[in-house]
Amino acid sequence: MSKAWSGRFNKATDSLTDDFNSSIHFDARLYRQDIEGSIAHVKMLGKQNILEDSEVNLIVKGLEEILQEIESGKIAFDIRMEDIHMNIEALLIERIGSVGKKLHTGRSRNDQVATDMRLYLKEMCNELIGEISDLGLVLLKLSKKHTNTIMPGYTHLQRAQPITLAHHLTAYTEMLKRDVTRFRQVYKMSDASPLGAGALATTTYPLDRYYTANLLGFSSICQNSLDAVSDRDFCIDFLEAAAVYMMHLSRFSEEIIIWCSSEFNFITLDDAYATGSSIMPQKKNPDIAELVRGKTGRVYGHLMGLLTTMKGLPLAYNKDMQEDKEPVFDTVDTLMMVTRTFKQMVNTMTVNQDTMLEAAKGGFTNATDAADWLVKKGVPFRDAHAIIGKLVFYALEQEKNLDDLSLEEYQSIDPVFDKTIYEAIDISNCVNARNIIGGPAKESVVRAIAINENFFNSEASPIQKKTQD
Description:
There is one protein chain. With 469 residues, this protein is mostly helical. The strands form 3 sheets. The protein has a two-stranded antiparallel ribbon with strand order 1-2. Helix 7 packs antiparallel against helix 10. The protein has 3 domains: 6-105, Fumarase/aspartase (N-terminal domain) (Fumarase C, Chain B, domain 1); 110-204 and 213-358 and 452-459, Up-down Bundle (Fumarase C, Chain A, domain 2), CATH 1.20.200; 361-445, Orthogonal Bundle (Ribonucleotide Reductase Protein R1, domain 1), CATH 1.10.40.30. The protein has helices at 15-21, 24-27, 31-47, 53-71, 84-96, 109-145, 165-190, 209-215, 225-230, 233-259, 287-310, 325-348, 353-361, 367-376, 381-398, 407-413, 421-424, 427-432, 442-459, and strands spanning 150-155, 158-164, 192-193, 220-221, 267-268, 350-351.
């Protein structure tokens, strides 16, 4: 079977060239977007009287049959046809004859592939928005169970102040909300149709670009034909959003790995989401969290790879741009698998509440509250800070916590102390006294959970296709 561009050449391409040049082994997943784009294009050709209605109907029917057969696994693609576009066109010509050769009128593979990729990313963004929202709701469900589960909050991985597990988890839901917003923005950046831009300079045929954009659910068209075929910003935007999302999951994974260690013992992973050792029978390893952390580097690499590919390309299309697909496709697959597995791992883990509480009571996490108590007694904050610093040093020497010190010991550091200090440094009071917006108090966290649930249940719903009037 000869190639569509073979008229210019006197000899066939070498098999190595075919293998190196071909993209069908990875762009085959664009078959549905490619056929949808072709159907919209040929309907527009009919509307504009460029093709006869009978020709349009025959081509559309042929394309619909090819789509059904691809989805039922009856079609094997041919590497000699290079890519998904030429494979489908060759199948169409084989089935309906020379009329199929009219499908590509007024179109180039350059605007065709750009259209396919934009359709694909819009769909994938919607799917990811749904998956990330589901993960967010799982975290919020867990948060509701643990609004009273006190744990230490950390800075520099040192115990700092007492918070609740719910407060900690809702920090991650805030990250996920931003991730959803990023993928919604990627959807919008992808939501312009390149179809009709041709190879780089449109065409002499009277195409109606708004009509094809409308049929394909795009909200607008690309305004410059050179940019339409050479733009891959939307792919880079997707990879950037994916990299930030993976960074968030990697941070959470790091904490899960630490928390399930014997040294922390804050959580216990379900056996279904952990693995063992081939030599050490006692081991239970957090491999899922470790793989999420590891795959983050993979996604970062895809982002840097495509940025590097694009950085030196003159206008308009260059074959280098074929390298956009594999990183995007692999990133989509990675994010889907990571999100679904991570969600189940978190949903099934056991929280060791007593261990968390004991950890919060240690490490002088209530020291700031002791300082605040002094300030409320009229002591300037810097003086209060120094007094509590001395108190902590004394407690360390005595191998005691602040709660364990007698009132006489407090007053030996500063006579301003009275018995109400014990109420101020009670761990539960330390948490629930912080009842301003964003704080760890139960009332504040419950408000945050409600706000975030509303976001994931409504604002994060899949974006609907827009059509032109």
